[in-house]
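Today's session is about reading a structure prediction critically. Students often jump straight to the picture, but the first step is always the sequence itself: look for stretches that repeat, for charged clusters, for runs of hydrophobic residues. Only then move on to the predicted structure, which in these notes is written as discrete structure tokens rather than atom positions. Here is the chain we will use throughout the hour.
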Amino acid sequence: MTQTFSPETDHAFSRVRFIMVHPSHPGNVGAAARAIKTMGFHDLCLVAPRFPDVLDLPEAQSLASGATDVLAAVSIVPTLRQALAPVTMAFALTARARMIGPPPCDIRQAAEISCSHLRQAGSRVAIVLGTERSGLTNDDIALCQRICHIPANPEYSSLNVAQALQLAAWELRYALASAASLPLLPVTDGHAETGDEPAPSEKVQALMAHWEEALVEVGFLDPRHPKKLMPRMRHLFGRNALSRDEVDMLRGLCTAMIKAAKNR
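Below is the predicted structure for this chain, in token form.
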């Protein structure tokens, strides 16, 4: 399902850029295009990729899978400085702690900072990822305003670059969508079925009478010594806010129980 954004949110989403520095695997580029499209973004920039024709290579096209429009719109530049030219806040995504460089934050904090930053007119945010093998250099990081980490297993914290980009895009989407009060769960355009509506009290009470009758017929409830069975049953059904269809289903079960008991 295609997500519909408000003009404000569309504008915010369009001002987020994902930058891959020296990508060497065409498949990762295609997967990155798909990753950002699923989260509502479209601006992917490559810095000096290993293969100049990376966008046309079969592996990139295959792994883009439905996001070939994003792949076709990818911009390719020779330097990170050029990729960051229009950006006002850049996050260098890295797995390693850096002794020197911008202040660090985790990816969720980066998303919150980005959401706040994008409220300013003319602002643009970038998530910068390095090469598959060695990540970002210190010179790359020096061009960014913040270092960003994805909390991961400290014994094995190396994520595939496309996977890291997917996580970053998800966190950014969650922050921007929450700020704009967009739905975070799938919704349908159809109308609820009548049977899905909450059952009125009269239907629930009729069910309870039928349920009690069935329990007596099958020998589960002794009417001479009922104890607290039925009050507990009422609490059980009351907690579940039964729908009309659910009441009808349980009434059918009661009828079957009574019939089976009488045919024994």
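Discussion point for the tutorial: Confidence is low (pLDDT under 50) at residues 1-8.
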